[in-house]
Amino acid sequence: MTFQELNMNNQLLNAITKSGYLEPTAIQAQAIPHILAGKDMLGSAQTGTGKTAAFALPIIQRIQESPIKHGKKQPKALILAPTRELALQIKESFTLYARFSQLRVVAIYGGVPKRNQIQNLKRGVDVIIATPGRLLDLMMMKIIDLSTIEYYVLDEADRMLDMGFIHDVKSISESITSTHQTMLFSATLPPSILNLSKSLLNQPVRVEIAKDNTPLETINQKIYYLDKANKSALIQSILKDPAVYSALVFVRTKQGANRLMKSLNDAGVECGAIHGNKTQAQRQSTLNLFKQHKIRVLVATDVASRGIDIDALSHVINYDLPETPDTYLHRIGRTARAGKLGTSISLCSPEERHLVKSIQAHINMVIPIESDHPFKQKKPVFKPSFAPQENKKKSRNRQKNNTRSRDYQFTAKKKKPYKQYASA
User: Fold this and answer.
1) 30, 207 Cβ separation under 8 angstroms
2) Are residues 133 and 147 in the same domain?
3) What one-character DSSP code corresponds to residue 343?
4) Is 22 exposed, middle or buried (0-12, 13-18, 19+ CB in 10 A)?
């Protein structure tokens, strides 16, 4: 199938060609016709499958084809995103696809002053991409009026709920009083998302791209078993390989991200870090350096695990394994995008082995073990401190009240050699 067969107009076809896209992805081919037809949609697809273009392209076309009204532009489309990074990326995509039109696109998000965002909104706008908190702030200030919204998109809805935005989402949704088309996209469809969709969507078309279509087969997965204390040394060893030319390294905590960034920089590895304690300006500056390949390694918490599109990312490294299998998929999905090959490396300490089991069960495959490394963990040999003797005669009293536990027997037996040693 081609974009021409999806009935994209000439302006969009020109923009799509300039963007380097040859043919639509599965989610685009299935979603675009229904959105052009004005249907509400519940879309499910893993990261890296082209979700943004699936709703951006038809929304742009429908706005272009709507009657031109004189006066200041009023917002016609609202796209809600869980993170600042995702909001900025969606804005870049809309701007790219609408390059040959007069559409005005504005992204509003927290972590930066409101002044510039307010000024951009007051000039008039067609498309607003927003995070929930900042959007509600500007709504309370009477800066944004959602009564003219015709197209409403909730992107990464499961992530929004995970981050505790459910009440914000409901409040925003209730403020859109005009007749509008709603599209909800989510990587997963847990009961909470299905319940939300029932309250927001009107006879929706359901488009679901099976997990089998995710690019796991294009990702070379490896797992390294080692002691936690050796993780920093091992990752430095891994990053000496010239094949690791662009690596996104995931850690669990903000403090862990700062510590790892410092140790890598001290070892001569040019890297930066993004996490929740960084200002938006710092995060965006570091991300731009990484995208422009001015730094080779980006250390991040899971704030970067969804929605960040980085070209030519060779490796994803799980310095800390994620707590949930879905997060593992979102993380490694940063590489091997658009049909390219990629590598994911996971460092696993003894405390994290149970997480590996959950991940492997979720993806229905065994992750190959990389045993050829200097910090290979030796399998511990279990040596019991004592061998409890089995009492063959079970008295009635012991059956009724088992007060002589093994711990008690062990304690009692320890006293005898101690006395012998003390009297020697």
Assistant:
1) yes
2) yes
3) E
4) exposed
pLDDT tens profile 64-73: 998 777 678 8
The whole-angstrom separation of Cα 101 and Cα 59 is 13
| 222 shares its domain with 205 | no
Specify the number of domains making up the chain.
2
Model confidence, pTM: 0.68
Give the Cα separation of 341 and 239 in Å (integer). 18
* Side chain identity at residue 72, one-letter code: K
Do 337 and 364 contact (CB within 8 A), yes or no?
A: no
Distance CA 79, CA 77 (A): 7
β-bridge mates for residue 360, sequence order:
none
Which domain, by its residues, includes 347? 214-363
Half-sphere exposure of residue 328: CA atoms within 13 angstroms, side-chain side: 25
CB distance 193 to 157 below 8 Å: yes
Tokens of 403: 């007060």
Euclidean distance between CA atoms 85 and 46, whole angstroms: 18
d(CA 366, CA 130): 39
Structural domain includes residue 247: yes
Distance CA 156, CA 308 (A): 12
Where does a domain end: 212, 240, 259? 212
Q: 296: closest CA among 235, 220, 245, 233?
A: 245
Contact of 165 with 132, CB cutoff 8 Å: yes
Measured in residues, the chain has a length of 424
Distance CA 127, CA 59 (A): 9
Pairwise pLDDT comparison (394 vs 33), residue with the higher score? 33
Q: Token match 């995103």: residue? A: 81
For the chain, percent helix, then strand, then coil, each to nearest 5? 45, 15, 40
Q: Which two tokens stand for residue 191?
A: 């009961």
Residue 199 neighbours by CB distance under 10 Å: 9
**Does the structure show a pLDDT above 90 at 265?**
yes
- Cα–Cα dist 127/108, whole Å: 11
Same-domain check for residues 348 and 358: yes
Same domain, 188 and 222: no
User: pLDDT tens digits for 188-221?
Assistant: 888 999 999 999 999 999 998 865 444 577 889 9
Which of residues 363, 388, 417 is at a domain's end?
363
Element (H, E) at 40: none
Considering only CA atoms, which of 75, 80, 78, 31 is closest in space to residue 57? Answer: 31
Angstrom distances, CA of residue 297 to CA of 2, 219, 267: 36, 19, 13
